[in-house]
Amino acid sequence: MTTHTLRAKRTRGALRTAAFMSPWLIGFSVFFAYPLISTVYFSFMKYDGFGAPVFNGLDNWTYVFTDYPNFWPAMRNTLWLVVVMVICRVAFGLGIGLLITKIKSGTGVFRTLFYLPYLAPPVAATLGFVFLLNPGTGPVNEILGSLGLPTPDWFTDPATSKPALTILAVWGIGDLMVIFMAALLDVPKEQYEAAELDGASSWQRFRFVTLPNISPIVLFAVVTGVIQAMQYYTQPLVAGKVASGVIGNSGQPFEPGFPDKSTLTLPQLVYNLGFQRFDYGSAAVTALVLFVLAMAFTALLMRRRGGLLQAGD
Amino acid sequence: MSTTTLERPLRTETPTPARRTARRRATLHWIGVHSLGTAAALFFVLPFVFLLLTSLMSDRQALTSDLVPHTWEWGNYVKVFRTPGFLGWWRNSLMYAGLGTVLTVLSSVPVAYALAKFRFRGRNLSLLLVISMMMLPPQVVIIPMYLFWSKQLDLTGTLWPLIIPLAFGDAFSIFLLRQFLLTIPDEYLDAAKVDGCGDFRTLIRIVLPMARPGIAAIALFQFFALWNDYFGPQIYASENPAAWTLSYGLESFKGAHQTNWNLTMAATVLVMAPVILVFFFAQKAFVEGVTLTGVKG
């Protein structure tokens, strides 16, 4: 009798779990597992959206890696963004986080002002920056010029388009500021007091007390920054479109990457191949490259932060 | 150790010159920190100021490099609203972000609850998959998804391919809410069980009221994410301007008003405004949510 009730209880438990999990179980199968498998399938097919997909072996793969002119520029740009943009964002975010913990008057106002740009919708912020940084009449070059400083062409020059995007990314630092601020306030006060008694300078206190305490958060910021850099899509695409002047109706063709492929990123390749060139097979190849890279860094993130999974027990 | 305890009382009684230099140093520190803070604040705020100022310039002046409007053209905002399609984009954005957020919360709450509080086989695997989905760029699965919505269901040209999936849980919301629910002590749930509450009633009566800040955070994040979404509407709605959202329509507004930076900036301000207004009303929940993503493990 006891085994009977036990089994009934267990079945009820499983049913309960299945019921609560059901929205996600469906979502996972239909919107993740199935399309992922299907993407692998399409990467071996020749398909333009009409007729039936035809198997063409590794043709799409060799095309993307050897002949598709946008692939390597996009990879190089992504690497540039991973190195420069991520470092700038983390360093600046940490600096602003430190600053806000030191500010004693009007902290709330400063915090809100520092945070606000993070909320600006990407398309609106990008459009705004293309205006602010426009070479002819933009306010930034106006100010730089009046100070006798060089006035770069920003979004219209391949040499400065990525730095301009980096300024835009650094402007929206609010998320990192909040995370660093919370981490900095968690550093035990006694450690600072002890360091002070030992006569440590403020740099030494930062180097030997602050940094070791917040290093897990810095690592978290770097890895999520890398993942974001690989997903970087809206800002470079809109910046290129608006700066080139070729925007507007869906019918108008726009080859992404303006100027001179300098703002191409990996996710834009999926759009370019799939929805502009109607080469779904090659688009699937770039999608899988993106998938492998994103998952590799996610694995790194989770290995370093095992707590993410175990905290439940 | 003993020397420091000896020194300390002595130090507080040191004569005025030493104390004065200490105070002067503190004042200098205060000035240094606050000037740096003001400089940073200018960097963050000036772009908004320039956008606002430009949005109020006359057509002619917007083409010059002057920074302050000669005449304040508030009518620019009226012109933007009168632009064909603009009001429709507003409606579409509100529907996409509003309905999408409601569906996200409804479908994600039970999943997050099960992942946080139930013990079952495959729970860690499920969580691992949720995190993987969260980190996945939407472009990875877009080819089959687009073919699915266009060929099987013929729903492209509408926002439904973006809204319907939200009824089946959103990975980021599930993860964030699960992190929040972990902080609710099991004793409350056990007490409810002893009182004869079923799982569903426990969720509604006990867990939801305690999880209100967490739910507010995921609702805000999702509303903003959907309001800002560009890729989704670009893929599914681009063929039909009547289904565009503000975030997608904005750049074509620029295209239609090629030289009128003033009108484009007015439209830009109108896209930013709702998000910033919502933030001011819900600042606390939002900042709490950001902290939750990074710090609490």
Tell me about this structure.
- The complex is a heterodimer of chains A (313) and B (297).
- Chain A is 73% helix and 1% strand.
- By secondary structure, chain A is an all-alpha fold.
- Chain A folds into 2 domains: 2-60, no CATH class; 70-310, MetI-like fold (Orthogonal Bundle), CATH 1.10.3720.
- In chain A, strand 1 and strand 2 (54-55) form a beta hairpin.
- The longest helix of chain A has 41 residues, at 2-42.
- With 297 residues, chain B is mainly α.
- Chain B has 2 domains: 2-55; 80-294, MetI-like fold (Orthogonal Bundle).
- Chain B has helices at 2-12, 16-55, 75-82, 86-117, 123-135, 142-152, 160-163, 171-181, 186-194, 199-210, 212-228, 231-237, 246-256, 261-281, 283-294.
- Mean pLDDT of chain B is 85; it is low at 1-10.
- Classes of the chains: A mainly alpha (313), B mainly alpha (297).
- The interface between A and B is large, with 106 and 97 residues.
Name the descriptors.
heterodimer, A: 313 residues, mainly alpha, MetI-like fold, 2 domains, two-stranded antiparallel ribbon, 14 helices, 2 strands, B: 297 residues, 74% helix, disordered N terminus, transmembrane (chain A), membrane (chain A), MetI-like_sf (chain A)
Count the DSSP helices of chain A. Answer: 14
Report the sheet with the most strands of chain A, covering strand number, pairing sense and barrel closure: 2 strands, antiparallel
CATH topology value of the largest domain in chain A: MetI-like fold
CATH superfamily of the largest domain in chain B: MetI-like
The chain pair forming the largest interface, with residue counts per chain, is: A-B, 106 and 97 residues
CATH topological fold name of the largest domain in chain B:
MetI-like fold
Backbone structural class of chain B: mainly alpha
Subcellular location (chain A): Cell membrane
Family (chain A): Belongs to the binding-protein-dependent transport system permease family.
Protein name (chain A): Multiple sugar transport system permease protein
Keywords (chain A): Cell membrane, Membrane, Sugar transport, Transmembrane, Transmembrane helix, Transport
